[in-house]
Amino acid sequence: MITELSISDVVSQQRAYFSTGETKKINFRLEKLRTIQQVIIENEQAIIQALQADLHKPELEAVTSEIILMLNEIAHTIKHLKTWAKPKKAGVPLYLFPASSRILPEPLGVVLIIGAWNYPFQLIILPLLGAIAAGNCAILKPSEIATHTSRFLSEIIPKYFEPTYIAVVEGGVETNQKLLAEKFDHIFFTGSPSVGKIVMAAAAKHLTSVTLELGGKNPCIVDADIHLEHAAKRIIWGKFINAGQTCIAPDYLLVDKQIKDKLLSSFGKHLKQFYGDHPETSPDYARIITQKHFDRLSNFLKNGKILIGGETNQTELYIAPTLIDGVSLADPVMQEEIFGPILPIIEYNDITEAIALINSQPKPLALYFFSQNKNLQQRVLQETSSGGVCINETVLQFNVASLPFGGVGNSGIGSYHGKASFDTFSHYKSVLQNSFWLDIKLRYPPYKGKLSLLRQIMKF
Ligand code: NAD
To answer: Distance, CA 427 to ligand 1 centroid (Å)?
Structure first.
């Protein structure tokens, strides 16, 4: 484990190692991606246990969202890395003949990756894959709130990697401030918009580029033209996995008045099927991460009218899957990202109202739309802006390596996953190359009498 005192030393040691050029070699990058694969396969049980201890995360959720997803992403990166890393030919205007040009991806250098606590393993390792693939050194700062996963990462990473290449720094806000005072070549941050602003301000001091993977309130619009049962199950699943502590969970529901009652009764039926009559005893339902978040979420239960759920158990940090009706935009539950198992339901008469409501709010990370109506699908896509959109599905956009994942406006800057991760941690260097066998004098002074011919030539 790296202590706070040695942060500057780790950064300078990584800088020295990066300058040897070792990390730029494609075979080195492939080998290290395979090492990460090994870390995950050899320590699967320890990862599951850490996630269980931090969030009471069900094994199936841990394996699918923090292990298989990562292994798939590694396989995808290994398969495509040589193609991604190849120089790309670029066109040259005819008048520059015989020059040629190309674009060379190169690593940025030493990067800092700061994670959030809700998917505490994945949110560190997934960006790390991009950093390795692009040929960088990396310092990892897991969330101190997911204490067990943070400790696990700080113990396991040094067993497989030299700290001059990949190092883990554990700690809270103070440690982060020390890290952010250092000069990095890129900062990849996952967390809240408010801390995102702190990270960006610190990066600005060194003109360091940033990727900000932030959160926000993700609307879920439900039109009347749906397959009721499938829609209800997918919404409930996406909302209540990890007890709602998912950055892309539907935050609130905008439902067509005509279908509201039927949808609500279907929600009730499926919640029972998923978690039984007493979700508190279900092995498939997670817990709230800390007392602070439990208190914050419990206060939301005072808003509107509870239709289903609302039960809490402070010692267990348990909050039942809860549906709330009759909330207004002025209620605290609609004023900030919920990030917990509470789903406010707002009805609309016409989709125009739902779109107007969404557009009156900061741009979300994800927008969900349930409808079979192609015209309405088109309208929602064209008339709203969000990091991503899922039609007739929730959350699964995260699993598609070929879809760049990230926010827009208040929900973030930049993106990652698959090739987008490689791009995020690369600089695309433009190269123009000429040869010596031809040197047309037209561009050189004295200019007298040359302009009209140059005007003609430079059209090509
Ligand atoms: P957070 O912003 O509180 O913390 C994130 C990281 O920042 C942690 O490592 C923490 O140590 C550090 N930090 C906290 N306060 C700081 C400060 N004052 N100065 C410097 N560093 C500080 O976020 P969180 O509570 O860990 O996570 C929840 C948020 O993350 C939600 O908004 C959620 O939507 C978002 N999130 C986004 C994604 C995504 O992929 N876009 C994924 C997961 C979570």
So the answer is: 26
- pLDDT by residue (tens digit) across 173-184? 999 999 999 999
Strand bridging mode 366-370 / 219-222: parallel
Q: What are the structural domain ranges in the chain?
A: 4-214+412-428, 219-406
Beta-strand runs (E) in 16-114: 88-90, 100-107, 110-114
Q: Which atom of ligand 1 is nearest to the CA of 194?
A: 2
Check for a shared fold between 4-214+412-428 and 219-406.
no
CATH of the domain spanning 219-406? 3.40.309.10
Task: Tell whether the model's pLDDT for residue 112 goes beyond 70.
Answer: yes
Best substitution site from 147, 170, 195, 408 to test ligand 1's pocket, by max atoms within 8 Å of Cβ? 195
CATH homologous superfamily for the domain 4-214+412-428: Aldehyde Dehydrogenase; Chain A, domain 1 (3.40.605.10)
Tell me how far the alpha carbon of residue 192 lies from the centroid of ligand 1, in angstroms. Answer: 4
292 CA distance to ligand 1 middle (Å): 14
DSSP state string for 185-233: SEEEEES-HHHHHHHHHHHHHTT-EEEEE-----EEEE-SSS-HHHHHH
Could you tell me the sign of the dihedral formed by the alpha carbons of 69, 193, 305, 316, in that order?
A: positive
Chain centre to alpha carbon of residue 347? 29
Structure confidence by residue, pLDDT tens digits, 145-182: 999 999 999 999 999 999 999 999 999 999 999 999 99
Q: Has 174 been annotated as catalytic?
A: no
Backbone phi, then psi, for 315, in 5-degree steps? -65, -30
Mutate to test the pocket of ligand 1, among 57, 145, 192 (most ligand atoms within 8 A of CB): 192
